[in-house]
Amino acid sequence: MNKIVLVFLVLFVSCGQKKKYHDVGGDLGSVQAIDPAIKSILTFQENLNKEFRDPDVSPLPDRYRKDFEGLEFYEPDTNYIVTASLVFTPDSEPILMPTTTDRQTLERLYAIAHFQLNGKQHQLEIYQSLDLMEEEGYEDYLFLPFLDETNGLETYGGGRYIDLRLPKGDTIIIDFNKAYNPYCVYNKKYSCPLVPRQNYMKTKVAAGVKDFKKH
Q: Disulfide: which of 1, 86, 127, 204 matches 107 by Cβ 3.0-4.6 Å?
């Protein structure tokens, strides 16, 4: 998994810039024969837990990491994998997206994704980070932050993120099973982009990472 290591991020690190992609890999043992979509979700979970245990890259402070056993996830559910049609916004102007600190990220609205989930039509804005486009490995990175009706109940109140790559056509697959929390959920030293209110979904997205319980 590629990492961006910058000196100034010692104090303020962008939540969306430390954990990007979750490539299929690792020892999955008995799940080798299951549906590829489920296998990919389990791999995502395994890799994310592995990252959180690694002191070199984990967002967890030492006091939480020493007893860390794993994040809490919803059960994999392929109903939360959708194919969205894209309405591209090539003329959109760059915007400064606010974060949980005074820092702002430079983003461009890449497209609006339209899809059906839980029997309802939804649309979400997908962003392209102009700050990351020059970084090796992130040239085709897309950022999807979203809010839903589980926030503040089963998931983090400030919403979650999904990492995507530039599509080859006018559709894109969004797997909500791979939704993860901003890093500031785990450690206040991180600076996390705030989810735009227009990316609120009026439905429960019971997929991906749940809220973090600090003990």
A: 127
Strand spans (E) along the chain: 13-14, 81-88, 95-98, 104-117, 120-129, 141-146, 160-165, 171-175, 190-191
Which tokens in the block code for residue 17?
Answer: 């810039």
Tens digits of per-residue pLDDT, 15-32?
A: 543 433 222 333 444 445
CA distance 187 to 214: 11
- pTM (predicted TM-score): 0.84
Look at residue 212 and give its three-state secondary structure: coil
CB within 8 Å of 80: residues ≥ 6 apart: 117, 175, 176, 177, 205, 206, 207, 208
pLDDT tens by residue, 177-212: 999 999 999 999 999 999 999 999 999 999 999 999
